[in-house]
Q: What sequence folds into this?
């Protein structure tokens, strides 16, 4: 251990010196860890963006069940690219949003994107703030497994956590917004702990917390 000190054979003076060296070494080690770990050295901030599709640039779809796309402005001007078709939404971010993996990721059930984005933000060396993850609450319409003469469905909510550039834009994880009373806090925890190290195209997004009947897993469009 770095802060372990072998005391001298005898003498109060040497013992006190050993304690001082131990404390100094422990402090140095703590500073070393802080330098290596951004999460240890800084707090994470957040900001919210309200999405108004009427204020976004809209490109109409060309075929049936193609709703077109919307290009909106997010935190610090980060583009938000929203598209939809066949009663499902796709939401991607960044200057290259159309080509990111997130633009091919949706939920298996019929769904709709939310109108608020929570950005998770870190402070880079030099003081520049960078959003590294986005959280959006989607709505879902889940058909029951068993046939129902009334056509009953279950409506739910899923918080979608998305990693942002650099390094790719893709879904990191999902939290059932109704089954978990602390869904927002859980989604923030997933974003803060998982998003920056998540490898788009290599790591598979997972569900976190409890899952209820309105939950829907990921669907990838090839």
A:
């Amino acid at each position: 251990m770095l802060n372990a000190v072998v005391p001298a054979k005898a003498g109060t003076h040497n013992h006190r010196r050993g304690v001082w060296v131990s404390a100094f070494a422990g402090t140095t080690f703590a500073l070393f860890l802080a330098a290596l770990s951004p999460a240890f050295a800084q707090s994470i901030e957040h900001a919210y963006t309200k999405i108004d599709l009427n204020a976004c640039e809209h490109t109409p779809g060309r075929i049936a069940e193609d709703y077109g796309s919307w290009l909106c402005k997010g935190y610090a001007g980060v583009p938000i690219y929203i598209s939809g078709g066949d009663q499902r939404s796709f939401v991607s971010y960044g200057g290259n949003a159309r080509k990111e993996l997130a633009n091919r990721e949706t939920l298996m059930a019929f769904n709709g994107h939310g109108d608020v984005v929570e950005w998770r933000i870190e402070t880079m060396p030099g003081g520049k703030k960078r959003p590294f993850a986005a959280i959006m609450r989607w709505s879902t319409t889940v058909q029951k497994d068993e046939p129902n003469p009334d056509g009953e469905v279950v409506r739910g909510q899923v918080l979608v956590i998305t990693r942002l550039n650099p390094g790719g834009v893709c879904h990191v994880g999902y939290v059932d917004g109704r089954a978990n009373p602390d869904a927002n806090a859980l989604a923030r925890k997933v974003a803060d702990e998982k998003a920056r190290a998540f490898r788009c195209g290599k790591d598979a997004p997972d569900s976190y917390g409890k899952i209820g009947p309105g939950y829907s897993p990921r669907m990838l469009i090839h």
Remarks:
- The longest strand covers residues 129-143.
- The radius of gyration is 24 Å.
